[in-house]
Amino acid sequence: MDEGERLSLLIGATYDAALDPQLWPNVLAQAAAFVGGISACLYAKDAAARSGNIFYDDGVISRRFIELYFTRYVKLDPVTTGHFFAQLDEPLATADLIAYDEFLETRFYKEWAKPQQLVDHVSVVLDKAATSVALFGVFRHEREGIVDAETRRRMKLIAPHVRRAVLIGRAIDLKAVEAASLAETLDSLSAGLFLVDRQGRVIHANAAGHALLAAGDVLANVGGRLAACDASTDRLLHEIFTAAGEGDIAMGSKGIAVPLIGRNNVPYVIHALPLTSGARRHGGRTYAAAAALFVHKAALQTPSAPEAIARAFGLTPTELRVLLALVEVGAAPAVAEALGVSTETVKTHLGRLYQKIGVGRQADLVKVVAGFAGPLA
User: How far apart are CA 139 and CA 185, in angstroms?
Assistant: First the structure.
């Protein structure tokens, strides 16, 4: 198969996994092969607890090393802090977050990555909350080398589709769905569900969807067509309906976390899932539907404390990593040991932190970080 055929099959399988999570291991194996890596996974990191967990993986990385990562090495991973203020869907390699030569000197590389012959990791942020970040990542083995332009290009092709599938899967919170009975199965969801054709005509709505239409706050049924009360959002919905009718690839980044603001300033979000390909097409044919739209209230998203600190003072991921380690561990020699770098490297970053934040003592750095962690931050 050529690249286009492989991409089409991969995207279709990814969307099927949104409705049947048991498909994720196979999808991730396909994704790793397409991007050019040895293994892929969906996982999350927590800024407050300096911990994380894995949702799905393809089974290539051993369970022992996965457990070691989340119990010990996530705190030592030099790219962890950088992930908290990364842009959504933007591929990030190790060298984007830390100088690669410096990475090779860290305890994380020497004790966790090197024994597995892993040399790099390319990831995209799928979703961010106040203290956590969800990621899709692909590991690179020695035989594949470090992440290159082709790896980034391929990662960027599939990132928005993985993000859509993950967000929809979280919104519907189901273990499995039979595509042939899609509407009936989803009728009990708390999120509003609308099955629409490529013109946006409402073919089916669940109880929550009908309640949204009755309220007339964010959505309306205009002559049988689903319409947003906001004109600009309504134009975007038209584009989403048309793209869904043209297939999975045409959707691209359209229809992912589309914001809706109600007349009472209540925020909602829309996720659109195309129904014209893969196992989903059976449900689509039953109702002549091109897309399923999931609409639910949006939680207020505030930056994590690390992200807010980095933005406020223009810190690089490495500088942020050193700052947080200084607060958590203490003196420069202890930080150097914890991060697996030289004391001189830590002191160099410390000098830059003093300059950017505008203080002259380590105690003052601690006060600044503590202020961002306060209840009014």
Answer: 36
Band (25; pLDDT cuts 50, 70, 90): very high
Which fold is adopted by the domain 179-297? Beta-Lactamase (3.30.450)
The predicted-structure confidence for 94-116, as pLDDT tens digits, reads as follows 999 888 998 998 889 999 999 99
| CA atoms of 289 and 286, how far apart (whole Å) | 8
Whether the domain at 3-172 and the domain at 305-372 fall into the same CATH topology = no
Could you give the CA distance from residue 31 to residue 58 in angstroms, rounded to a whole number?
10
Distances, alpha carbon 260 to alpha carbons 60, 154, 270, in Å: 40, 31, 7
CATH number belonging to domain 3-172: 3.30.450.80
How many angstroms separate the CA atoms of 78 and 121, rounded? 12
Span 305-372: which CATH code? 1.10.10.10
Q: Could you tell me if 71 and 77 are in contact, meaning their C-beta atoms sit under 8 angstroms apart?
A: no
pTM: 0.71
